[in-house]
Design a protein that fits this description.
about 290 residues, alpha+beta, Structural Genomics Hypothetical 15.5 Kd Protein In mrcA-pckA Intergenic Region, Chain A, Pseudouridine synthase, 3 domains, elongated, pseudouridine synthase activity
Length: about 290
């Protein structure tokens, strides 16, 4: 990789530890094997880097032992973006992001078959939710992407069609979320013992009995958007767990993913289309028109 301007004057040690988040064990391997090169020359850990320097890291199998999973069906993958390190795909509703056990085939298995190498889940979508999902293509970049997610530097935006009209055009829900003791499949608002959850809601369009809303996640709790909207009296249409009269598909779609690529520092913005989500909107528009821009 090429050292960017904002890493200028950092030491090699600082880049490997703080920017690339390489684990201590792997850094030890790189150092003892002289597998870190700056402009094709092995350099000491305290060497200061200059913008434009070429940084080369060489890994052996003992650094990152190969992990194999069963390959799925590559034809089931709709690729939205791919480079040497990551791939973003458009998950259809009704498919799990990853299986519950090693033998269950899910999107992860299909994506791995698509790129012909084992991939790694960075974040997941509920089985009933469609849209953009990010995968790491190697174990080196996985912890870096996980850190971006934890630091809220990966923006995930969803569209949902909900019951009723919200009390304001823009809202922020911060209710804590915990497990439902009576139904292990479900979550509920539990402000005493639950985990902090934050969802930003903006109304995009209102209809006689429903609203189209945009949701931005600041945390990633299980069923977070579904629980928050349902708790405040606006369950998502088609939600089999949180809508009392669910019909059709869950009208929740992860339509946009935005972040800065940690190695190229380019802004990656991906939008995911969904024919079934658009069809669901048409069903509930009740004769009104909305322009879909995704």
């Amino acid at each position: 990789m090429t050292i960017p301007k904002n890493w200028h004057s950092l030491t090699l040690k600082e880049v490997l530890e703080e920017q690339l988040l390489i684990p201590r064990k792997i850094r030890h391997f790189l150092r003892t094997k002289k597998h870190v090169l700056i402009n094709e020359q092995f350099s000491h850990w305290q060497t200061k880097l200059n913008a434009g320097d070429d940084l080369t890291l060489i890994f052996d199998e003992e650094d990152y032992p190969p992990k194999t999973i069963p390959f799925g069906e590559p034809s089931l993958v709709e690729e939205l973006y791919q480079d040497e390190h990551i791939i973003i795909v458009n998950k259809p509703e009704g498919m799990k992001t990853h299986g519950n056990d090693a033998t269950e085939l899910a999107l992860l298995n299909h994506v791995s078959a698509h790129v012909q190498q084992t991939c790694y889940v960075v974040h997941r979508l509920d089985k009933e939710t469609s849209g953009a999902v990010l995968f790491a293509k190697n174990p080196f970049i996985l912890p870096i992407l996980n850190r971006l997610l934890e630091d809220k530097r990966i923006s995930r935006e969803y569209w949902a069609l909900v019951e009723g009209k919200l009390s304001a055009k823009s809202l922020v829900y911060k209710d804590k979320i915990g497990r439902d003791r009576h139904d292990r499949r479900k979550r509920l608002v539990d402000n005493r013992a639950g985990q902090y959850a934050e969802t930003h809601i903006q109304t995009l369009k209102t209809f006689p009995t429903t609203s189209l809303v945009q949701c931005r996640l600041k945390t990633g709790r299980t069923h977070q958007i579904r629980v928050h909207l349902s708790h405040h009296g606006h369950p998502i249409l088609g939600d089999p767990l949180y809508h009392p009269h669910a019909q059709g598909r869950l009208l929740l779609h992860a339509y946009k993913l935005t972040f800065t690529h940690p190695l190229t520092l380019q802004t990656i913005t991906v939008k995911a289309p969904s024919t079934s989500f658009e069809q669901g909107l048409d069903t509930f528009k009740r004769g009104q028109h909305i322009k879909n821009n995704f």
